[in-house]
Amino acid sequence: MTPEQRAAWDRFQADTGDLRKPYDIFAFGDGPELARELLDLVLAGTKQATASRFGLYQKIGLRPPATGDLSLVLDEQDRPACVIETTRVDIAPFNTVTEDFAWVEGEGDRSLDYWRAAHLSYFHRECGREGTIFSEDEPIVFERFRLIWTLNPE
């Protein structure tokens, strides 16, 4: 945790009285533009879910999120922006995603077609960087969350 992230987490704890440690510290997406776009959706209350490849957790040695986990979300410049709490996690193949999940994830027009196209592109890019190939049968961690705290810069 960087000093800036530590200061934000300390402020979160002081503001809320929640003494839990962060499960994860991350920015959404795979680049500054996508990180900003997705963070804005979270802050607006539109994005309340995210999806990640189960294999990625195995690769980086991090367990998948669980209900009650807290994460510090960073902006496009890796600065602390908000804290989210995981409310539900389902692990299932990519090709089983539902219209409801696509809507709650809140991206694009919130349709299942948009979700599939955007996530296929994203997961293919991610696998390409790893030197692997994405399969629609691959398990995905479908995480729902709620925004519980926002850093308001002074």
Account of the 3D structure:
The radius of gyration is 15 Å and the shape is globular. α4 packs across α5 (112-130). Helices cover 39% and strands 25% of the residues. It is built from 5 helices and 5 strands. β3 (70-74) and β4 form a beta hairpin.
The total strand number stands at: 5
Strand content: 25-35%
Report mean pLDDT, rounded to a whole number: 96
Q: What is the string of helix and strand elements? A: HEHEHEEHHE
**Given the structure, what is the number of helices?**
5
Major beta sheet summary: 5 strands, mixed
Give the low-confidence spans.
Answer: none
Structural class: alpha+beta
Rg: 15 Å
Distance, first to last CA? 21 Å
The helix content, as a percent range, equals 25-40%
